[in-house]
Amino acid sequence: MDINTRIYNFSAGPAMIPEPVLERAREELLSLGGIGMSVMEISHRSSHFERVLNHAEQGIRDLLDVPGNYRILFLQGGATLQFEMVPMNFLRPGQFAEYVITGAWGTKAQSEAKRCGDARVAFTTKDSGFTSAPTQDALRFSPDAAFVHYTSNETIEGVEFKYDLDAGGVPVVCDACSNILSKPIGVEKYAIVYAGAQKNIGPSGVTVVIIRDDMIERVPEGQFPMLDYRVLAKNNSMLNTPNTWGIYMVGLVCDWLKEQGGLAAMKQTNEEKAAILYNAIDSSDGYYRGHAERASRSVMNVTFRLPNEDLEKRFCDEATLLGMDGLAGHRSVGGIRASIYNAFPKAGVEHLVEFMSEFAQKNG
Ligand SMILES: *Cc1c(COP(=O)(O)O)cnc(C)c1O
Fold first, then answer.
1. Which of 64, 131, 225, 298 has the fewest CB atoms within 10 Å, i.e. is most exposed?
2. Confidence of residue 1 (pLDDT cuts 50, 70, 90)
3. Is the pTM of this model over 0.90?
4. What is the spatial distance between Cα 153 and Cα 336, in angstroms, rounded to a whole number?
């Protein structure tokens, strides 16, 4: 293979970045906008970087239509640190929070929050194997909860909410790691939306946190500054040296998304791509079995099984030889997972579906 040939990368994260974005980053790598330095070499306090940061922030704000009373922060520590920061800041002694759990990440978020305080499970699909997301009608929250937390797309199981969860006035915190920017959402319905960038926004090492002003005001005194949303917001995400490269890449990805027509256009393309794959599963006479129930099928992470684990391994091995990588399911659940985020091309989905059909015929 030519050293510059790119393959179809189905990895769940870090995941594909749009090729035009990589090209542009390459063009600007040695000298950002003609300043004679790369974005990794300039001071984060310089006017050059201020422009980079503002550009990334404006990109997210425009694409998601983020209202003026929300701050957009670029933090480090991934979504995993948000599992800790959210309860550290908002689950105070005497309070309780409610978690909706539809998969592995929600499970982890709640178990981290329990270190801080009374993090309750308001709803879980654990007993049915995390194959669905509840309808809004199935959910009941206590009006006294400090916040409600949920995972809009469970990356490992491939289970997605098709609506913005409403908690009847209780602040809603959403882990949107693996479907943020894949479709329009109503940011105004949330107190906090957070996402590590490496699934759908850019490279790892930068976490986008969209937080409403009144939540920032609610942060108690005496937190460690690096874990204090108020201090981080006041310092415009630059309490310490931020991930300058990551933030720059977020800005470029946002530019690309705007060129594609924004999130309404992405939603349509993403749904088309997912439909091709789910149709292949559904028309395989049971050879391929989807993990998620139909109504909760993720548009981003398509999870399915083959008749046995040996075949699943062979499937991944043969796919790799055909230029398709990253198809093995998460180590905790096995099976196959095709992650098809914004940057994943439709041609790659068609390539996979063709292979699936041939594989089923040969090994059926
Ligand atoms: C990947 C992922 C995480 C963990 O993200 P890190 O940035 O690695 O901490 C959390 N939640 C969801 C839904 C994810 O997909």
1. 225
2. low
3. yes
4. 17
